[in-house]
């Protein structure tokens, strides 16, 4: 892993920071002042490089400035299950940063060339910033954690289904509601989707092919999936 490189917050980074929920309600000037107190540094990661491993120190959160990162958990039998994907403009590592041991419970891996801005979030518990500012950040964090709980409930709903076809359709329906359209875009490739569903890739491929032959779904040329039978 490359050593962190200190970097000032330029206009590009400031624009990304202004769009994340953590700084909702903060002006650009306030965000810049806060981030400079959070000892910012940027790291570049190559494809398949581990950004943060399970058990690593998690005192810093990461903002994905470029690329895509998978969030996974390795089970006792050695199999890896993808819990989520993070893309440009999303934060990673909040769970570990606010846990009691302050270590990462998950593994974050670059799925392509990535650039991550790391920030020390511990300042919200210190006298580095005033109480009012700390409270504003904590309110935003509460909302973010609540949203994450909802996403975990969605996954629990998906994995609670016995048949693979029902798991697939449950996931597609959730995405249909989120994207508010019948033709949806999956953020995962086939292997990642199989890991998310906790199934074998070949079994997933067979089921998806059967579903397309049955007219339940249709794969579009751009990689999107159309649900032809929303009442499945």
Characterization of this structure:
With 232 residues, the protein is of the alpha+beta class. The protein folds into two domains: 5-157, Jelly Rolls; 161-227, Arc Repressor Mutant, subunit A, CATH 1.10.10.10. It has seven helices and twelve strands. The strands form three sheets. It has a five-stranded antiparallel beta sheet. Strand 11 (217-219) and strand 12 form a beta hairpin. The longest helix has 29 residues, at 131-159. The chain is elongated and about 60 Å long.
Top keywords for this entry?
Jelly Rolls; 7 helices; about 230 residues; 12 strands; single chain; five-stranded antiparallel sheet; four-stranded antiparallel sheet; Arc Repressor Mutant, subunit A; disordered N terminus; alpha+beta; 2 domains
Topology of this structure?
Layout: E1 5-6, H1 11-18, H2 28-37, E2 41-45, E3 50-52, E4 60-66, E5 68-74, E6 80-87, E7 91-92, H3 94-97, E8 107-110, E9 114-120, H4 131-159, H5 164-179, E10 183-184, H6 190-197, H7 201-213, E11 217-219, E12 225-227
């Amino acid at each position: 892993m490359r050593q962190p490189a200190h970097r000032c917050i330029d206009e590009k980074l400031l624009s990304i920071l202004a769009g994340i929920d953590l700084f909702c309600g903060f002006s650009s000037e306030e965000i810049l002042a806060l981030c400079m107190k959070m000892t910012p540094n940027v790291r570049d990661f190559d494809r398949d490089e581990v950004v943060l491993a399970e058990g690593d120190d998690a005192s810093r959160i990461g903002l994905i400035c470029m690329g895509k990162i998978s969030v996974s958990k390795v089970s006792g039998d050695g199999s890896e299950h993808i819990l989520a994907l993070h893309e440009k403009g999303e934060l990673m590592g909040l769970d570990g940063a606010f846990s009691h041991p302050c270590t990462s419970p998950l593994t974050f891996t670059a799925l392509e060339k990535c650039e991550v801005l790391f920030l020390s979030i511990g300042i919200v518990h210190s006298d580095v910033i005033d109480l009012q500012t700390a409270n504003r950040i904590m309110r935003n964090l509460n909302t973010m954690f609540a949203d994450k709980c909802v996403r975990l409930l969605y996954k629990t709903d998906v994995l609670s289904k016995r048949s693979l076809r029902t798991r697939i359709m449950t996931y597609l329906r959730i995405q249909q509601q989120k994207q508010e359209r019948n033709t949806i875009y999956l953020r995962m490739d086939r292997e990642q989707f199989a890991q998310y569903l906790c199934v074998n890739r070949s079994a997933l491929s067979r089921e998806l092919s059967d579903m397309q032959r049955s007219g339940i779904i249709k794969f579009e040329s751009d990689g999107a999936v159309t649900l032809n039978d929303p009442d499945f």
